[in-house]
Amino acid sequence: MTTDTLPSQNSFLSKKLFAGITPAMLIVIAIMIFSFAIHIYNIDAIGNANEYYTAAVESMLKSWSNFFFVAAEPGGSVTVDKPPLGLWIQTIFAYFLGVSGFTVTLPNILAGVFGIPLLYVMVKKYMGELAGIIAGFVMAITPVFIATNRNNTMDGMLVFTLLLAAFAFIQATETGKKRWLFLGAFIVGLGFNIKMLQAFLPLPAFYALYFFASKETWLRKIINLSLATVLLIAVSLSWAIAVDLTPAENRPYIGSSDNNTVFGLIFGHNGISRLDSQRDNNTPRLDELDASQNGPQTGSAPDAYPMPEGRTPPQQALTACENQSQGSSCSFTMPNGREINGSCITVPNSTELACAPQGMIPQNQSMNQQPPNNGNNGTPFSNETGSPGALRFFTQPLSKQMSWLLPFALISVLLALFGSKIKLPVESNIHKALILWAGWLLTCVVFFSMISGIFHAYYAIMLAPALGAMVGIGFAHLWNQNKTWAFVALVISAIITIAFQIFATTQYNEFSRWMFGTLILLGCGTTLIFIQKRLAYIMVLASMLIIPLYWSMMTVGNSSNNNLPTAYEGQRGGDRARANQPPADNNNRENVNAELVQFLQANTQDVEYLVAVPSSQQGANLVIETGRPVLYIGGFGGGDEVVSVDDLQTIVANGELRYVLYGGDRGKQNITNWLNSSCTVVNGFDVMTNNPRGDESQSMKLYECK
Predict the structure, then answer these.
(1) How does residue 362 score in pLDDT terms, banded at 50, 70 and 90?
(2) Which sign, positive or negative, has the C-alpha torsion 559, 563, 565, 571?
(3) In whole angstroms, what separates CA 51 from the centre of its chain?
(4) What is the pTM of this model?
C-alpha cells in the first residue's frame, strides 16, 4: 500500500456497526471518557488553582467594566497580564456554577477532552482512522497536557482554539474556498485574545499547508493569505485597541505593562521578555552585579545568588541586608551610580544575606533552593525549564513534561518526509499531514529550545497536539507498508524512545525495575512478527506508551503546584514540592489569615477597599475569601506603578481606604516613609506573606491610615 492511499474504508475500524457508528468512533469516545476521568481525579488537590486568575474571575463578576477590562481585583485598580477571552469564558462558567478552583478550571478540562475527537478527525483526514486514534490517545496521556488542563491558566483553551483553526485551514486547503481560510485566521485571532503572541506559534504551519497544498494559483494564494493576515491582525488587536483608546483614568492600570497600555504588554512583558527577560523592566543583567565591574561574567542559576560562580556578591549588596530578614526589601547603589532595588536572600553556602535585584529571582523562590541544573547564564525560571539549547526537551527539568514520545515523533518526521515523492502543489496525504503537524511540532520545539526569557514549563502543552499527531502518523505510515523494513524501523524507533524514557526517569530518581517490562513487551512484540504481524505492531506501540501513561497517572495523583502547573516531578522534586505546598482547609481557602480577615471585614464596611497590599501575591486570596476590593499597589508582582504615594493619600482622604498591609519598602521607599509618618501600626497583626508555594517570605505590618 502506498502512503498516498488511505487505509481501506472496509477495514475493521471503519465498518459501520449501528446508526452509522464505527469501531473507531467508539474507541475515540472511550478515550474521551478516560481523559475526562484522569482530569477530574483528585481534583480537590488543585484548591483555588492559580489564585491570581481565580481572584480575577471573582472580580469580573462584580461589574461589566471589570469584566471587559479583566480587572485583577474587584476595585478595578489593575488588570491581569493576559487578554480577556479565556478569562471571559471562565467567568461565564463561574457565573452559573460559582467561583471555585474547579469551576474556573472546568473550561480547560472540557477543552482538553473535546480536543481529542477534533485531533482524531484531522489526522484521520490524511492518514486514516488508526493514525487519528493514536494521535488522540497520545495527546490524552501527555503529562503536561493533563497538568495544564487541570488549572485555570488559559493554555488549554488556547490549544483547543488552535485545533479549531487547524481544521479550518485544512478545509481551506482541500476545498479552495476562501471562507474557510478567513475563518481560520479569525480563530487564530481569537487565540491571540487568549494568550497573545503564543497563539501565533503554529501559524507558519497553517499558512504553509494552504500555500503549498492548495490547488489554486500561486498568485491567488498569496492574495488570499494577505487578506487573511489583515483579518487576523484586526481580530487580534481589536480588544487592545479598544482598551488603549479608553482614557487611563476611566479604566484599570494595564498590569505588567511598562507604559499602562495593552500594546506595551503585548510587545513587552508578553513579547520581548519571553525571548530575553534580562532587559525586561530595566532589570540589570547578572554580569552587571559583578563587584569588580570588569565586564561580563558568566552567571549562575537564578535560584542561587545571581553572581558568577566562585565570586561573592558586591559589598554594597551585603551591606544593604545587614540586620534584615530573609525576603526583606532592599536597595543599594552600584559604583557606576545605578540604583538596584530587590529583596534580601541568603547567599549559597553561607548564612549571610545579600540584596538581589527584582527580576533575577524566580518568583517566590529563596536563593537556597537550587534548580536541577546550573550554569544557565541567568535564564529565568530555569528550575522549571532549564537552559536554552538543542537538548532542552531531553534533559531535566523539562523532559518530564511532554518529551516521552518525542524521539519517535521526530523519527516519524523523517520517515514521513520520504514516504512519497515530493511535488508542488503537494498532493500526497502524508506530506500534507507532515507540513501541518511536523511544522507545528518543529516550530514549537525550536522556539522553546532557544528562548532565554520567561518560559514556564506548562507552555509545553503547545506541543501536545502535534506530538500526538506525529506519533500517530509515523506509526500508521509503518503499519501500512507491509514490508520488513517498516517493522525494523518501528522496532529501532521504539528502542531509541524507550531508552530515552528510562533515562528520563533516572533524571528524577523515579526509575523502577518494572520499567524494564517495557523492553520485555517490545521483545515479545518483535518475536510475534513471524506469527501475528498486526499484534506485533500493537505490542511495540504499547511498549512506548506505558511509561508516559504512568507519568500522567502520577501527575494527577501528586499535584504539587497549583499556580504553575507541571507534570509529576518524580522523587527528586516531589518531596520538596509537597513540603512547600500550602495547607488548605476543607473549603480550599488557602493561606488566609482568618483573624486578619475578620478584623478587616468588621472595620471596613464603610469604605470601598478591604485593604491595600503590595501585590496580587498577598491580595488574591483575600479577594477569593471575601469578594471585596483589595488594592494591588504594585500589580501582579509588585513592580507596576498602579498607584503612587500621592494616590494612596487621596484614596485615604476620600474615605475609600483605611488599612494597608505592607512590609519593607518593596522597592518603593516613599510608600514606606508615608506609612511610618502618616499611619499607625495595628498591633497584633504582624503577618508573614504567603507566596503561591506557601513558604513564608517577608514580615508585613498592618497600618491604619486616616
Answers:
(1) very low
(2) negative
(3) 15
(4) 0.85
